[in-house]
Amino acid sequence: MTETRQPARYTEYHPRWYRSRVSTWWWLAQWPYLKFILREISSVFVAWFVVVLLLQIRALSRGSEAYAAFERWLQNPLIVLLNMITLFFVVFHAVTWFNVAPRAMAIRFRGKRVPDFWIVGANYAAWAAVSLVLAWFLVRS
Amino acid sequence: MDISYHDVLLVGGGGAGLRAAIAVAETNPNLSAAVVSKVYPMRSHTVSAEGGAAGVIRPGDTLDDHAYDTISGGDWLCDQDAVEIFVKEAPEELLRLEHWGCPWSRDSDGRVAVRAFGGMKNMRTWFAADKTGFHLLHTLFQTTFKYKSVTRYDEWFVTRLLVDEGRVQGVVALQLMSGRIQAITAKSVILCTGGCGRVFPFTTNASIKTGDGMALAFQAGVPLKDMEFVQYHPTGLPFTGILITEAARSEGGYLINKDGYRYLQDYNLGTPTPQPVLRNMELGPRDRLSQAFVKEVEKGRTTDTPYGPVVHLDLRRLGEKVINTRLPFVRELCLKYENIDPIKELIPVRPVIHYMMGGVHTDNDGATPLAGLYAAGEVACVSINGANRLGSNSLPELLVFGARAGKAAALAAMEQKPPSERVVSQALDEKLRLEQQFLRKTGGRERIATIRSEMHKAMENGAGIYRNQTSLQKAADKLRELRERFREVSLDDHSLTFNTELLAALEQSFMLDVGSAIVESALHRVESRGAHQRTDFPARDDRNFLAHTLIFNNSDGSTRVKPAPVVITRWPPAERVYGVQSEVKQTAAR
Amino acid sequence: MAETISLEVFRYSPERDAEPSFQRYDVPLRKDWVVLDALNYIKDKVDGSLTFRWSCRMGICGSCGMMVNGEPKLTCATFLSNYAREQGPLRVQPLRYFPVIRDLVVEITDFMTKLQSVKPWLIRGKEKPISEGEYLQTPEQLDRYKQFSMCINCVLCYSACPVYGLDPVFIGPAAIALAQRYNMDSRDEGAHERMDILAQHEGIWGCTFVGECTKVCPKHVDPAGAIQQYKLTATIERFKSFLMPRGAK
User: Fold this and answer.
1) Of B30, B36, B295, C202, which shows the fewest CB atoms inside 10 Å?
2) Complex confidence, ipTM
3) Span B186-192, mean pLDDT?
């Protein structure tokens, strides 16, 4: 918030409002705000996952030699650490979004709004289903 | 001195004020209408109305039925020509509100739903869930945004009317935020400030309902009408005045005294049955229930609390399931605002002031005897409420007569000259008075809160549910004393910025005037009728008192009372039968 | 001596004070007393200059919103006893992100202007005469917008919204929810007109979905939901007008 300059002195009939400034650290004041900021930051890590995936595809397209080099790169402890943090944020991102999904989706069935529980549940179910399909592919190979 | 000019001024931004503002804009969009309100309009007390709004819309129901219910409910003190206008225009107004977006509750075919309501023969009460007043007010407020010719003065308090050459020319108002006091002139002024429940200690009314408009008119020489008729609701929460609806009793709630005894059986209200029976015990008429409470207090069988004697409403026996499914709003109110869970605890209740039948004397167009001054809504007395208002008539009343007053005031304003020069000096005098009496004064001995609580006590004891010559005279004397002492009030707060203590002082002085008018009018009416019950004159006396009471303020501060005829068109006075007797009478008639 | 509770109340007098301060009061702790009752007790018995707004004391007029221990609350519905066990005094401050006029009274003209700017009234192409009766609306159609019509304009949601705090041009939760109330009303035909106001940066796209507005709403209006749902509508409309430049309306 921009601070409006207040008149130096109060003059009759001209109320002098007090405006408090929003602190740079406002998001540390309350857990819901911190959670919100973390959710926003998580997008950086989501982007990082996308980059990793693109690199992986590029390596794959360049043959087994390149892919082996990519795998070695992945085993770098720093990269492992970064990816662990990334995993945490991506899960955090998904979970917080699933929890607010019913706010954004007002689905109606037979004239009644579908309860929040079902919308959140459907999201988790879809997540679980996709994960299972992927797991099945991995186990099979 | 700043001065602003408008054509029509609305004092008060509740249902009546906003409806009138729209009526002005629709009558002539070139007229400048201004709404001066001491709170933001959507905070007005219309917002608290829960029940509904009566208007004949269903086949099988007739305008005559609605008129008859209103007139008999009002104990034949209603002006029947006004009631006929009212019942005819009520459905139109409610429909208009529908066209403006009011979310009325609906039947499955998409038509507006109506329900039954106490005292109404047929189903004709429109409702928007249990928040009818809220939706009505917000719909009106949002609709006024459409009209460019409507200006708002939000959080401005009117301290007096400007009267010159025998007509109203505007008001003097205080802007809360800045402390600026200025003249706002207009060719017509409509008072829409609502009732004055706050004159009494226990009321459902919000803190803003201090009878401002009644006092403003009274001070300007305009008579108040039928001020002795004050409606009680039998079951309010003692401290907050929150209303516990009749439904709590019709679902089977018991009213018990401190011994756990269903005391209503001692007052000719039937015999206790485990299940609720219509018109029996807890479902007897409202006024009889309130009167029984007073008798219990006299017998010392009520429970004492920090807020005075109470009886209890016992819902515990209904169980969690019934309370949650049938009375969720009652439970919510108790839990959220009183910290009481009716599933486990008794609810302390007592009769609370609910509505003022009386008010500023007007004709059917809201015009008062003072040229240019109009009034509509609870502040006014047309009268369609007579000696006792019927439930769900107050919301359509403020729409019908708000619209009529708005239209009449607009047409009159178009014929009127600009304000006279002299109003500026009047406004300057008023500014000086406020500064001398409150803002610059120090060393007074009296606190507003003390005066207020003594006034409350005087009104409760003297002009409560039961009155008599002695009690009323005592109250009148006390109020006179308080008016004297009020001169000695001094404020802690001498600030110009949002001085709510100054506001409280101005409201307090208004309330003392209005309180006196109630007491003096009640002294004058030596009969019992509707909400006015005198122990020394328990019967209705049509020979001498089938008349309105007009009370005037003399220039020396004393008052004089004059009767005015009641308009009877098609319904000659009959006995007002209700409760247990009504069943007998109706059966006999069949 | 009955039990008491300490309140630390924000005080600011523009005529006297350069900066606000906190004043401490001890008030009786009663089971049925809310924060507002404590303030009224102070005003009546201790200090008549304490300044705050209130009216109905039943959560419907929307006047008495304040920050209670850092959270936006209707003080008529916030029991003192809920805070009795907490450490330190109960802190009462004016609603956050609004300019303070005095003590606990904030300036809300900005909100009122925004409320009006979203055209919160029923817009019809053609009005039906009153004599032809009501516009039909089934209970299901009513139910679609009912929730958004419950707003009492208490502005707690603005005090919960960091976006509004950081950038006051944001139209904000209550005003957008009210616009959505009319958009979803089967009788209304003004959605297109409102879109110009809502679908701009200061409108729905300013919202980053913190979601706190919905949590603090005393009337369960869910403004966060209204905004997200409107984002979806606006996006679909945008695509429609892109794909069908002439036909989309």
Assistant:
1) B30
2) 0.96
3) 98
How far B474 CA sits from the closest chain C CA (Å)?
26
For residue range B70-90, what is the model confidence (pLDDT) as tens digits? 999 899 999 999 999 999 999
B chain contacts of residue A14, beta-carbon cutoff 8 Å = 178
What is the separation, in whole angstroms, between the first and last Cα of chain A?
56
pLDDT over 60 (residue B269): yes
> Residues with Cβ < 8 Å from A63, sequence gap 6 or more?
none
pLDDT score for A6: 52
Compute the distance between CA of residue B46 and CA of residue B17 in angstroms, rounded to an integer: 11
Using CA atoms of B392, B217, B44, C51 in order, give the dihedral in degrees to the nearest 10.
-150
Please indicate whether, in this complex, the C-beta atoms of B135 and C149 are within 8 angstroms of each other.
yes
pLDDT digits (tens, 9 = 90+) for B443-484: 888 999 999 999 999 999 999 999 999 999 999 999 999 999
- Is residue B339 within a helix (H) or strand (E), and if so which, with residue range? none
The single-letter DSSP state of residue B307 is: T
Give yes or no for A37 touching C (CB within 8 A).
Answer: no
Exposed/middle/buried for residue B306 (C-beta within 10 Å: 0-12, 13-18, 19+): exposed
Selecting among B6, B66, B124, B249, the annotated active-site residue is: B249
**Nearest CA distance, C213 vs chain B (angstrom):** 20
> Do residue B179 and residue A14 have CB atoms under 8 angstroms apart?
no
- The structure tokens listed for B549 are 């009471």
Question: Alpha carbon A70 to chain centroid distance?
Answer: 26
**Domain range list for chain B:** 237-352, 445-551
- Confidence category of residue B180, pLDDT binned at 50, 70, 90: very high
Whole-number Å distance between alpha carbons of C26 and B406 = 49
pLDDT at site A99: 86
Between CA B377 and CA B366 the distance in angstroms is 9
- Which residues, 6 or more positions from A41, have their beta carbon under 8 angstroms from its beta carbon? A89
- What is the distance in angstroms between the Cα of B175 and the nearest Cα belonging to chain A? 9
Are the beta carbons of C144 and A40 separated by less than 8 Å?
A: no
Count each helix (H run) and each strand (E run) in chain B, helices first: 16, 24
Which residue ranges form the domains of chain C, and what is each CATH number? 4-106 (3.10.20.30), 109-243 (1.10.1060.10)
- pLDDT given for residue B582 in this prediction: 47
CATH topology of domain B445-551: Methane Monooxygenase Hydroxylase; Chain G, domain 1 (1.20.58)
Interface chains of chain A (3 or more CB pairs under 8 Å): B, C
Question: Under DSSP, is residue B474 helix (H, G, I), strand (E, B) or coil?
Answer: helix
> Which of the residue ranges A109-113, B116-120, B156-160 has the most confident prediction, judged by mean pLDDT?
B156-160
Phi then psi for residue C241, to 5 deg, are -70, -25
CB atoms within 10 A of CB A125: 11
pLDDT in tens, B312-370: 999 999 999 989 888 888 899 999 999 999 999 999 999 999 999 999 999 999 999 99
Q: Which residues of B touch C49 (CB under 8 A)?
A: 492-493, 495, 501
Q: State yes or no: is B548 an active-site residue.
A: no
Contact of A123 with A98, CB cutoff 8 Å: yes
Residue A111 forms contact with B (CB below 8 Å):
no
Report yes or no: B69 and B78 within 8 Å, Cβ to Cβ. no
Answer yes or no: are the C-beta atoms of C103 and B125 closer than 8 Å. Answer: no
pLDDT for residue B118: 77
pLDDT recorded at residue B283: 83
pLDDT top residue among A10 and C149:
C149
User: Average pLDDT, stretch B562-570?
Assistant: 96
Check if B233 is active-site: yes
Is residue A97 less than 8 Å (CB to CB) from chain C? Answer: no
Has domain B237-352 been given CATH number 3.20.20.70? no
Q: Which residues of chain C have pLDDT under 70?
A: 1-2, 245-249
